[in-house]
Specification:
single chain; about 240 residues; alpha+beta
């Protein structure tokens, strides 16, 4: 499959250092034959476009973005029939049994533009947040714990509204500048700088994940979703390819 457009290896090398948290590195591979791409499909935590492309198309190349400190791995390919875009998704953690993934929606991959800074923002504000939330659910299921989750609504004017039930979650929200509003029955935080709020959401997701607390993102009615926001994942059990028997 010959696809014109941006060089994937260069793009991966530009994208990796822009991703949030501990350092990331990119490993690029050119596939000399169709079978070379098969190992990279194993363990993809995706039930949407990325896994479909891996299953149905002959790819020329791909890149794995690796965050050694957290054990997080992402997979990057060109988006079929869209030479100005790429598809990127996450690999499932390998330390859990198949039962831990029951009733956990896969953090499906997303399409990102051929611009490394914009792509990095989309990965940080969308894919990695959903990956952290899904990972927290898997950890709780593996430990036999009851779900604990913060629901965050991001309004067009920059305000964030969060709802949480546990004391641990409330403490994390308070530590990040949220204040409880009795009228709204939610923790609120206002900011007019979208970049600042995006960094806060990423930080909040990481802190909640450390406590085994999930983070789900919601958008208020009639508010436009961010560009490259994927459709709602299908309502079905998502089990990584590597776990299927």
């Amino acid at each position: 499959m010959t696809t014109p457009g941006r060089d994937l290896e260069t793009f991966a090398q530009e994208l990796a250092p822009l991703l949030p948290g501990p350092p990331w590195r990119a490993e690029y591979t050119r596939y000399t034959q169709y079978e070379d791409q098969f190992p990279y499909a194993v363990g993809l935590w995706d039930t949407n476009h990325l896994s479909a492309a891996m299953a149905d198309l002959v790819l020329e190349d791909g890149a794995v973005l690796i965050q050694e400190a957290a054990g997080t791995r992402l997979y990057l390919i060109r988006r079929p029939r869209h030479p100005d875009q790429f598809l990127i998704g996450a690999y499932a953690p390998e330390v859990f049994g198949v039962d831990a993934f029951t009733n956990v929606d896969a953090p499906d991959g997303i399409a990102v533009p051929d611009d490394a800074p914009t792509a990095a923002d989309a990965v940080a504000q969308d894919l990695l947040l959903r990956y952290q939330a899904a990972l927290a659910q898997v950890r709780r299921a593996h430990a036999g714990q009851a779900p604990d989750e913060v629901t965050l609504t991001w309004y067009a004017d920059g305000a964030l509204a969060a709802r949480a039930a546990s004391a641990r979650a409330m403490n994390v929200l308070n530590a990040n500048g949220f204040h409880y509003n009795t009228d709204e029955r939610a923790y609120l935080r206002s900011d007019t700088d979208p970049a600042s709020q995006a960094r806060l959401v990423q930080k909040l997701g990481a802190q909640l994940n450390q406590h085994g607390i999930g983070l789900s993102m919601r958008h208020p009615p009639e508010t436009a979703l961010p560009e490259f926001k994927p459709a709602t994942p299908p309502a079905r059990t998502a089990i990584p390819t590597a776990r299927r028997r």
